[in-house]
Amino acid sequence: MKRESFEGIIFEPCCGRGAISKVLEEFGYKVHASDIRDIEEIVGEKGKDVYLIKTASDNIVTNPPYSQLGKILEHLSKIYTRKRHFY
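RE: above sequence
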């Protein structure tokens, strides 16, 4: 976070337990987090399929499942307006 800054809302569509989202929030960013899984440990919106998201986000920061990496990155590359970071 010392080398990166964001303007606007950050979207984390594969949030899991919130490792990325929590750090971003600690640095004062507004984060919208979601995950396709619908289990208690998910910190954001549960049961949200990344492929059904069509609305543009200012920034996208995520660490998608490796098994779907290419497909998810291709989809997300079409719906951001400022920055994207995939880890």
